[in-house]
Amino acid sequence: MGAAHSETTVQAIREAFGCGEALGATIAGLTREAPHLRGAMLWNGDQEDASALLCQGRAQELAFGREGAVLVLHALRAGELFGGIMGGAGEGVSRIEALDEGSSARFTTAAVLRLMESYPLVALAVARQMSARIEAMRRRMVETALLSATGRICSELLRLARASSDLAIRPLPVFSELAIAVQSTRETVSRTISQLEKRGVLQRIEGGLAVVAPHRLEEMIY
Questions:
Q1: What gap in Å lies between CA 81 and CA 88, rounded to an integer?
Q2: Phi, psi of 159 (to 5 degrees)
Q3: How far is CA 160 from the centre of its chain?
Q4: pLDDT digits (tens, 9 = 90+) for 108-129
Q5: pTM here?
Q6: Domains in the chain, please, with CATH?
Q7: What is the average per-residue pLDDT within 42-49?
Q8: Cα-flanking dihedrals φ and ψ of residue 68, to 5°?
Q9: Cβ of 42: how many Cβ atoms within 10 Å?
Q10: pLDDT of 90 higher than 80
Q11: What sections of the chain are H helices per DSSP?
């Protein structure tokens, strides 16, 4: 730890914790910059003292059942914390996998806790992320219980699109990954997206998928 970090990592740290250059440098000095490839395991559920900030790329936290069932607990984007500091450590049933090539800033969980004790900005940032994580999990539970497979797919597409300023999902969603995220099948996802394209709700664009009729997509959720 303490080695020089890329500007991308330093900027991600500042934005995640809402801090200036001085505190950002202090936090960066407690981390190790770690690049990763798509598909890499970024965290295992038994790594209680390992925490990190996703600086580039996307990832997802998955839970695995005894008979091969897979449940997406949370979809992570750049700027989100993961690992022991966000709870779930010691259970050994979940792990976080990278969906893209990217990088993270690695902490010990103890280091994050010390930062939270010393800097209210850090404690507030972690609390906000925990609150957002709980709300996202609550939403997924409600959707799984109350929505049809098509409704869950439409809801997830709308959520992904609203994360960008132009309602475009980039890169193009991988159907098998989207199916796991909404507890459906690849075939159902493929069929639903094809139907949405034919109806003019979605449109293929270079490198992604654009939602051209968000209100119609929202109506199809319920």
A1: 13
A2: -65, -45
A3: 11
A4: 999 999 999 999 999 999 999 9
A5: 0.82
A6: 7-137 (2.60.120.10), 147-219 (1.10.10.10)
A7: 87
A8: 90, 0
A9: 24
A10: no
A11: 7-17, 21-28, 109-118, 120-146, 149-162, 175-181, 186-198, 214-219
The one-character DSSP state at 174 is: P
Check whether 3 has a pLDDT greater than 80.
no
Mean of per-residue pLDDT scores for the chain: 92
Per-residue pLDDT, 91: 61
- What 3-state DSSP class applies to 53? strand
Cβ-proximal residues to 52 (8 Å cutoff; 6+ apart), any chain: 34, 42, 43, 81, 82, 83, 104, 105, 106, 107
Q: How far apart are CA 87 and CA 94, in angstroms?
A: 11
Cα separation, 149 vs 192, whole angstroms: 9
pLDDT, mean of residues 159-168: 93
Angle at 65 between CA 62 and CA 67, to 5 degrees: 135
SS3 122: helix
Q: Tell me, what amino acid is at 18?
A: G
What is d(CA 116, CA 168) in angstroms, rounded to the nearest whole number? 36
Tokens describing residue 211 = 């939602």
Sign of CA dihedral 188, 175, 58, 15: negative
Neighbouring-strand partners of residue 211: 202
Question: Is cis: bond before 171, omega within 30 of 0?
Answer: yes
The position carrying tokens 């103890």 is 110
**Residue 94 has what pLDDT?**
85
Say if CB 221 and CB 155 are below 8 A apart.
yes
Residue 103 to residue 31: CA distance in whole angstroms? 12
- The residue-averaged pLDDT of 128-136 equals 94
